[in-house]
Structure formats: C-alpha cells, structure tokens
Amino acid sequence: MAEDPRQPVEEEQVSEQAPTSPPVLTALLLENFSDSVVSHHTNFGDETVVIKREGLLDLFRFLKDDPRCRFDLMIDLTAADYLPREPRFEVVVHLKSIVLHHRLRVKIPLATDEAELDTISGLWVAADWYERECWDMYGIVFKGHPNLRRLLLYDEFEGHPLRKDYDYYLQQPLVPMRKIRERHDYEHKVITPEGPKPLPS
Amino acid sequence: MGMKQNAATSFITTKLDAVINWSRKFSLFQFPFVTACCGMEYMAVYGAHYDGARFGAEIPRFSPRQADLLFVVGTVNHKLAPVLKRVYEQMAEPKWVVAFGACAASGGFYQNYAVVQGIDRIIPVDIYIAGCPPRPEAVLDGLVELQRLIQDEGPKGITGINPRQTKDELLLSRS
Ligand code: SF4
Question: How far apart (Å, rounded) are the C-alpha atoms in residues B175 and B169?
Fold first, then answer.
C-alpha cells in the first residue's frame, strides 16, 4: 500500500559539515596553478574559482585540454561592476564539459585602471562575441581579440552603459530629436537620484 | 434607370476634398515597422478574429514606397532611429503615422541609454495607441480615430500639419 502523503515524512539528516577537501576540479587547479588561484568556493555542487589575470590563458588551456577537465563548451562570458569596491570589475566565465558532465565558474577580478585581460576566443570560438559585448557594455579590453568592436551599440556611442558610473539617463541620439511641445520639460532635464538636473549638452 | 427619376435621390452634392478623403480613409496600406513584443498584438489585429481588414486597412506593404500608413509597433532604440526616419521619408505623400503601444508612444518603461523616448521625437505622429501591449480593440479604436482624422483634416504636409489649415482650425477640428 502506498504511504499516506499527509503523514509527516522524517526528514533526512543533512550533514552540516563542510567537506574537508576542496572538490575535484578546484583541487586540480590548486595543485597545478597554486599561484593563479586567489580563492574558491562551491555552491550546490557547482565550483567557482577566482583567479588572477596573469597567466590565465595557461589555466584555460589546461581546463580545455586536460583529460580530467575537458571543458569543451564555453557557456557564458560576462562581467560585473562592483563600483565602490576595488578591484572593481569581475569577468565571469562559465564552462561546461559535455563529455564529463561537469561545470566550472571562473572569475577574474580586474582593477579600474587595468580593465584588460587576454582573450580566450582562441580557445573557444564562442567567446568572440561575448567578449565584444563585454567590451561594448563594460569597456573591458580583451587583448589579442581579432575584432574587438562594439557588438550591440553603434560606433558613435561614447562610454560604456553598463558601467555603474554611466549616467543612466544619458542618451546619445544618432538623428536630431524633435522638440515636443506637449511633453513639458523632458527636453531640458533628466531625473537623477538628486532630483532633476539639466541635460549635459 | 429612367430619365424621369426624382432628382433628389439620383445625385448628391459634396466637396471634392470630402470624396477624396473618404476614399483615402478606406484604403490605408500600412507599412508595419514591427520591432518588439507589440508585434504579436499587431498580428492578432490582422488575424481572422479581429480582422482589421474590415476598416480598409487590409494589406501590409513591405515597401515604404507603396504604403501610406506607418505603423510603428514596439520599442525603437537610438541605433534604429535613423532607419525609422528613413522609412518615413521614403513613404509617398499623403502619409500617416500610428505609434502602437507604450514604447512607440513614449518609450514605455524603458528610460535608459538605448531607447528613444517616443517616436514623435523622430517623426510626426497622428495617433497614439496606449497599452503595453494595446488590446486589439484599442488598435481598432485607434484605426477608426485615424479614419476620422483623415476625413476631417485630409493629408498633411511635411511639417505634419495640413498646409491648408490654420492652427486654430486644426485645434478646433481635434477638440
Ligand atoms: S509597449 Fe509593451 S508590449 Fe509593446 S513593445 Fe513596449 S514593452 Fe513590448
């Protein structure tokens, strides 16, 4: 007979103890690239390593080619801007191995005035457009990229809109904007956290 | 038809303008400038259920040269703005513009680096249809309103205002 679903089921005892040794991939990286790895953690079984940008190509090549890693798929490459913090930017790369069924997240912190790192588009072709988008939105330079142009925005655009210090009401029109009589003071002001202020001309 | 028919029922008198405008308002060939989610509602309007064809705005023309009603459906960003302006300029006179949905009318909930805050910042607009997205009924309402506008005001010049109308007449006819 099936159990009555209304009966309270005894919960399984979840071990609260942290694993004593780092998980497999992290351990592998710690062993081979102890200089590069800054820190690491896991969350729900997914491993994250934070690495230095120096020598990152060797590390990524290892991740791609080593028979214990075999990351043949680059899922995502993006960045985050933690403005007051220094190092300010963090480039985040998500990797997956289709053959071995595991994932890894690699983060590379970058300081404000050194927002550049080596391209990984030579290893995973998919990284090409992700890196262009990343340059477009955050102004992070990928050294050695074959074609580092804006991907989504137009060439005339100045600045990088997803940086936290970009004035988020600032628009850069390509065609002259008409004056709208009914649309009151939109023409002359932008609304900022400190209240309305004149548009920078 | 016999020659002896009553004169009162055999002809009507009207202004030439009125006749031409009447024929214009029932042969609107639209150019659908569809950029975003509102496009689904646009398709619904011209599907069998709501049937925009009932109002004479039946056949979408995918060449601005052949269209006289520009439907701007969805978000227009600054990268796209030159294209929209060019499409508008390529349309032959007389022409009308409908801003379909909150994004086309005002930028909608996008107020950021990318989105034009209403297409009337680029080209003159005749009818604004509110909603995100507008229901097909709202679109049909806008269409009927546009027909009324065409009947009453006729074609406009490049300025977006009928050159034959003074400003006061224009305001009066719209109020
Ligand atoms: S008004 Fe709403 S539904 Fe229409 S394009 Fe904008 S976001 Fe999409």
Answer: 10
